[in-house]
C-alpha cells in the first residue's frame, strides 16, 4: 500500500547523524524514524517523536503525499536551570510518504501517545477483495435446451 519513501532522504539522515549531528531547521529538517505495516483493513504508520509537544506536529496530505513535520524544542527554558545532560536532538524533523491509490486518505486517523505518532489509513473500498456473483446456472441451461 505504501508506494515508496525517498531513499536519498535516508542517506541525508545518516550523513547528518554521523558527520555533523546538527539540529534540523524548517528549510532542512532531519528525518524521523518510522514503522509501517498493514493490520487487517488498514495501513498503520508509527513515527518516533519522543519529547515533542503535540502542538508542534503538523500533518498534511496532498495528492497522496503524506507530510509529517514536528519540532522538538528545549524542555527547560528557565535561565536558573543548568542542563547536565542533553542527548535528545532538538530542531525540526520531517518525513514524506508517497501513498498508493488503494488507501482512503480522506479517512486518516492520527493519535499521539508516549512519544509515538500513529496514523491509521483505511484501505479503500474499491481496493478490497470481493466475491462476484455469477448469474446463470440451472435457469440458463433450461432456456438454452428449450
From TrEMBL:
Organism: Amycolatopsis panacis
The protein's name: Hsp20/alpha crystallin family protein
Source species, domain of life: Bacteria
Family from the record: Belongs to the small heat shock protein (HSP20) family.
CDD domains named in the record: ACD_sHsps-like
Domain SHSP, chain residue ranges per copy: 25-137
Matching Pfam families: HSP20 (PF00011)
UniProt xrefs under PROSITE patterns: SHSP (PS01031)
Amino acid at each position: 500500500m505504501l508506494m515508496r519513501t525517498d531513499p536519498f532522504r535516508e542517506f541525508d539522515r545518516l550523513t547528518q547523524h554521523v558527520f555533523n549531528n546538527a539540529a534540523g531547521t524548517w528549510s532542512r529538517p532531519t528525518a524521523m524514524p518510522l514503522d509501517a505495516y498493514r493490520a487487517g483493513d488498514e495501513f498503520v504508520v508509527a513515527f518516533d517523536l519522543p519529547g515533542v509537544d503535540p502542538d508542534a506536529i503538523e500533518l498534511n496530505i496532498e495528492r497522496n503525499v503524506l507530510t509529517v513535520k514536528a519540532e522538538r524544542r528545549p524542555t527547560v527554558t528557565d535561565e536558573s536551570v543548568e542542563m547536565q545532560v542533553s542527548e535528545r536532538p532538538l530542531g525540526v524533523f520531517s518525513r514524506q510518504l508517497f501513498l498508493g491509490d488503494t488507501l482512503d486518505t480522506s479517512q486518516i486517523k492520527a493519535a499521539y501517545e508516549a512519544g509515538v505518532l500513529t496514523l491509521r489509513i483505511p484501505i479503500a473500498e474499491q481496493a478490497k477483495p470481493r466475491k462476484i456473483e455469477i448469474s446463470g446456472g440451472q435457469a440458463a441451461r433450461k432456456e438454452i435446451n428449450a
